[in-house]
Amino acid sequence: MLRTRQKQVRCFExxxxxxxxxxxxxHKNAPLLQDYLILFKEPIPPDVQEMLGKxxxxxxxxxxxxxxxxxxQVVVYEAxxxxxxxxxxxxxxxxxxxxxxQIFERHIRSGEEIDSYSSLVFLGNVNHGAKIHSExxxxxxxxxxxxxxxxxxxxxxxxxxxxxxxxxxxxxxTAQLARINENNKLKLIxxxxxxIGIKDIA
Length: 202
Fold this sequence. Notes:
By secondary structure, the chain is an alpha/beta fold. It has helices spanning 19-29, 46-54, 82-88, 95-98, 174-180; strands at 10-14, 36-40, 58-61, 101-104, 113-116, 119-122, 131-134, 138-140, 147-150, 155-157, 165-167, 170-171, 187-192, 195-200.
């Protein structure tokens, strides 16, 4: 007898796009999509399937419109138009960009997106609904309520009020967030193998 189990799953429906748009979306959002089913409306090309497998993401294909209530609980980076990507920056950073540091002395507003190959330093708050992605390091000296995806070798944080903090492809869990918030000191977050370390620095 075939055994079945019914489960409620959270799903992201993706509109029809080209391979580069899919790849950009998956790369930027992979840490936040681990517990979601990604639903495509058309068969996807092999390079997209390969990236989904690399990040171990669950996906399916259906032309049928699913019933259900849309949710705004999780905000992800939109799949940018390929033309827009080419105009804003190259797909691979130059050596100059790789070592550059961008400093933001203001608060980052809700709905604002910052996507960079450089290390990023924020002296103000990162508000709820803001989205920060860097291939290098991220330091936030104010209150953090937004989505943070850091692929560098370290992060500096304090006063974190967001459950969407991803470091080197791993989302910080409840215990790690509690460790960051246990006092008002800045925390240095690093990773050795699969172990994330968090220590006071100020």
